[in-house]
């Protein structure tokens, strides 16, 4: 075989190998995209299924509560009323503390009461023990100067009566680029049974910051 024919054969083989490689890569890429597409469809279906389940669950729970509250049995009615109050307190606590423990700057920190008018009474929103102006003892802007930020995680209300509860609040806080700190606070909370607003809130326990939630 001549030198030229050997070169041609080598070139042909190289082209074939490249073509096979490209074809294999194309198939792999196509299969990957197909799997990604199927994953997105499955994820979307799962999310929708969860939403449907939660909606149906809440509807059934509400129907059961409504029927129990209409019961002639005072014990069943009392339990239903208590469960309804428990749900209200958990909803109020989560809504309140989500706003209370979430801010990125001094403006958001000071604006918190204005976002809570539908959740808490006017007296509570004017309580300086809960809502200060973010200034330190020298009059400086503590929030702006330190860069402290906070992010709400969750709140759980443990009812002791139909209008009062102990609320456990989990949140995270940090100074500028420093590591986030997990923190927990416990509050005693009372709601107005007529307006369904929080009318009293007191910090009762503040454990040491922890990395555990």
Side-by-side strand order of the widest sheet: 1-2-3-4
Overall form: elongated
Low-pLDDT runs: none
Radius of gyration: 30 Å
Give the helix tally: 5
- The chain-level mean pLDDT equals 78
* Quaternary structure classification: single chain
Give the total of beta strands. 4
| End-to-end separation | 77 Å
Q: How helical, in percent, are the residues? A: 40-55%
DSSP strand content: 15-25%
Largest sheet: 4 strands, antiparallel
> Helix-strand pattern, N to C?
HHHHHEEEE
- Helix vs. strand class: alpha+beta
Annotate the secondary structure layout:
Layout: H1 3-69, H2 74-100, H3 106-110, H4 122-125, H5 142-146, E1 148-159, E2 164-175, E3 181-191, E4 198-205
Antiparallel strand pairs: 1-2, 2-3, 3-4
Helix pairs in contact: 1-2
Keywords summarizing the entry:
213 residues; alpha+beta; 4-stranded antiparallel beta sheet; 5 helices; 20% strand
């Amino acid at each position: 075989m001549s030198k030229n024919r050997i070169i041609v054969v080598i070139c042909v083989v190289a082209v074939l190998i490249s073509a096979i490689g490209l074809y294999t890569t194309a198939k792999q890429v196509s299969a990957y995209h197909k799997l990604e597409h199927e994953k997105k469809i499955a994820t979307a279906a799962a999310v929708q299924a969860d939403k449907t389940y939660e909606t149906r669950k809440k509807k059934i729970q509400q129907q059961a509560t409504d029927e129990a509250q209409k019961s002639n049995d005072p014990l069943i009615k009392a339990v239903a009323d208590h469960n309804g109050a428990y749900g209200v307190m958990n909803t109020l606590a989560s809504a309140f503390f989500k706003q209370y423990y979430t801010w990125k700057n001094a403006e958001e920190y000071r604006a918190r009461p204005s976002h809570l008018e539908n959740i808490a009474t006017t007296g509570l929103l004017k309580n300086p023990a809960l809502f200060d102006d973010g200034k330190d003892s020298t009059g400086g802007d503590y929030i702006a100067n330190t860069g402290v930020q906070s992010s709400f995680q969750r709140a759980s209300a443990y009812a002791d009566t139909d209008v009062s509860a102990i609320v456990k609040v989990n949140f995270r806080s940090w100074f500028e680029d420093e590591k986030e700190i997990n923190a927990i606070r416990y509050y005693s909370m009372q709601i107005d049974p007529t307006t369904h607003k929080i009318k009293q809130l007191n910090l009762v326990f503040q454990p040491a910051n922890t990395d555990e939630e």
